[in-house]
RING-type domain-containing protein
Amino acid sequence: METRIFSQELDCHLTPILKNKIRVEMIYFRNSLFCLGVTFRVHFYVGQGEKEERVVTGGLLVGRPRRSLCLFVFSEEAMCRGEEKQGAPATLHSPGASTDGPPPIVTEEKLMNSGHELHEGYTCPLCCLPIKLPVVKHSEVKPCCSKTVCNGCRLAACKHGMANTCPFCRTSFPESGAATLALVQKRVDVKDPVATALLADAYYYGDHGVQQDIPRAIELWTEAARLGDLNTHFKLGVIYYKGEGLELDVGRGVRHWRHAAIQGHPLSRHSLAVHEYINGNHELGVQHWMISAKMGCERSLNGIKEMFMKGHATKAQYTAALKGYQTALEETKSPQREEARAFFNKSK
Ligand SMILES: [Zn+2]
Ligand SMILES: [Zn+2]
């Protein structure tokens, strides 16, 4: 059965997963949504991770939901096939990356005009707020569904009696490294880019009882990048740029960063700034840093500050970057996250 969704509102945001007709879709909408010719199980996530579930059979679903409501739509076909058909998650995933080897060349114009907004993978799928950078410090990737859940929603889930299940997909937390690996492997088998990157990490660091195997890790990272994982493009960028474990290839490293930067990956943008700066292209470096600072990257803001102090950036540039950074930071805040920050700091 083909999943067809029609929205009459421009506010409806369809992520690439739905366009690829895989399994799950997250739609932000403010007005109405129409689902035709297909049965859906609809999960409404309202506010602090609370859930309402409804089965909608064919026809029409019209809603005027509250602001920031998320709608998750599972097609009947996918529900029947279950896990076998689980597709790529939204997490830092770039569709269309289908070639082996280095990513395609990005023109200078496209590089400077694209990727000024954080990729949707930086948004928590439960509270729908952008996650503060560095994401790894303020969220956790779940091995069961590959979703990046913010610390605020993790704490809220615990308070709602879900301390031992994933707040997104409700899978019980794995109790051993082997069980974690089994969950990851299941998603690797269906070509999930995030899971493929997680498995690569396990081989690289020798985690979860896996024997350390760096060539295998690099092979898996290459696959994760091919599948479109932006974090992996960044990581491979570093590996090739510095020649860590692979033959030094600065050009290929830069290509990985450019590929991720145009899709809204701030650390890749930051790395491009550093690359330009050390090659004497101060103005271009500052321009890259301006973009990533406005996405909430503190390292980039510090880069501009240093440029300003050395006379390579103007006061107006520094002021604009600072203002943009502060705005981005404000957008990541919520009372739930403040509470989580205090809680996780205390429990360290
Ligand atoms: Zn959240
Ligand atoms: Zn999960």
